[in-house]
TrEMBL record:
Any coiled-coil regions, as ranges: 205-232
Protein name as catalogued: Uncharacterized protein
Superkingdom to which the source organism belongs: Bacteria
Record key words, sorted: Coiled coil
Organism lineage string: Bacteria, Pseudomonadati, Thermodesulfobacteriota, Desulfovibrionia, Desulfovibrionales
Amino acid sequence: MDASQRIAQVLRDWLGEERPMDDETHHFIESTYGALGDEELAALLNGDDAEAVTLREFMLEPDEAVRMAVEAEALENQTDEADVAAALSGLEPVLAVRTALGVVRLPLDADDCRMLARRLRLGWVPRPELSAGAAEGLDEEQATRLLVRCRQRNLGGEDTPEAQARFLGDLARRSGSAPTFFTMFGRLAPLLSGLESDEAVYAGLQMHKATLARALRELQEFERDLKRSNMETMLLQGRRIPEISADETRATIMDIDRACLAVFGRTEVLPDQAVMEADHGSFDPDEDLDRIFDIFG
């Protein structure tokens, strides 16, 4: 059995696990078609129209456990997604979805197999800077998890800027022991797009930090003015409600600082450090959303 066949077997086993439908897919189906019985759902999924294809795409997103199982094979043996898709199709895979009433089984065709194989990004090859940093700063399982997440985001590979791989590798090497490392990675990874040099990575992260700080400042000004006025008046004046989470924004700023200090040995000081001071009595857009709707009701 070659690598393509082994990967195909992993996928086939995962498809047949009778997993419950995820919340996103369940919500999409109910909001679009209403409550469906198993036979109606099976008929819908087995269609060949655009709606059926969209639903199958929702369900054919490999989870991290599958990606972890595939990663070692993908790294050790260069495999082509077409070979994996062909091997998977030859196994006659069936997607088993558990519902409230039972289990719906959906045989996958060759197009489904190709889509599933394509989502694994098997052509991605990590740059040495990333691989070395992951191996030095993380244990084996965590290093694999980092490579999986980089593969999924197409970060740190041979067809992406070397500076991104170097930054991620150095971050893993110097901060990998932190219990919040993967949370930090999740916050910073989307910020690296388009940054092609070490200087650009540093400048890009600092620019994003400044943008977040401005958003926090706007939120604080909104909260301050709200104490002097009231929600109805401010909304009628055309004041925009800041749509950010203050806690998450501060956490991202702190992660940018930690990462830049770890990798570059420096970071920029915010002009107004007061934005980093939490006020637990602050206005929360999420919690006060019902009130806002009532105002305009």
